């Protein structure tokens, strides 16, 4: 696989993973929960951030052969980017789901 395809695949995986806790009422898309609390969603979202980061490190190592050291700024920026990716699911869960249920 080329590096461009791997990067686009990582972006798609990140967008899907960031929205998964907000669109699904299952914990990690496995166990069904009747009333999933906000804290569970946030914990699941944060765990998926680390999972996607691990996948990214694996892709970096595969493409470059080595892992480049990053400062704390890099991880803050990736966390904020993951937060932006999660925005559609968050808006759906907090606001739009109630509007669709009342119609």
Largest sheet, spatial ordering of strands: 1-2
Q: Mind describing the biggest β-sheet?
A: 2 strands, antiparallel
Number of domains: 1
Percent of residues in beta strands: under 5%
How far is it from the N-terminal to the C-terminal residue, by CA?
A: 46 Å
**With helices defined by DSSP (H or I, 4 residues minimum), what is the helix count?**
4
Q: Which percent bin holds the helix content?
A: over 70%
N-to-C series of helices and strands? HEEHHH
Helix/strand-derived category reads mainly alpha
What's the oligomerization state?
single chain
- Could you give the count of β-strands? 2
Give your account of this protein's structure.
The chain has 103 residues and is mainly α. It has one domain (3-98). It has four helices and two strands, in the order H-E-E-H-H-H. The chain has a two-stranded antiparallel sheet. It starts with a helix and ends with a helix. 15% of the residues are buried. The mean pLDDT is 89.
């Amino acid at each position: 696989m080329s590096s461009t395809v791997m990067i686009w695949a990582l972006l798609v995986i990140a967008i899907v993973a960031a929205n998964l806790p907000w669109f699904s009422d299952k914990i990690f898309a496995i166990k069904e929960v009747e009333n999933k609390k906000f804290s569970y969603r946030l914990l699941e979202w944060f765990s998926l951030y680390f999972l996607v980061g691990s996948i990214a490190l694996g892709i970096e190592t595969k493409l470059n052969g080595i892992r480049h050291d990053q400062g704390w700024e890099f991880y803050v920026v990736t966390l904020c980017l993951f937060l932006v990716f999660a925005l559609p699911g968050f808006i759906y869960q907090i606001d739009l789901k109630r509007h669709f249920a009342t119609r």
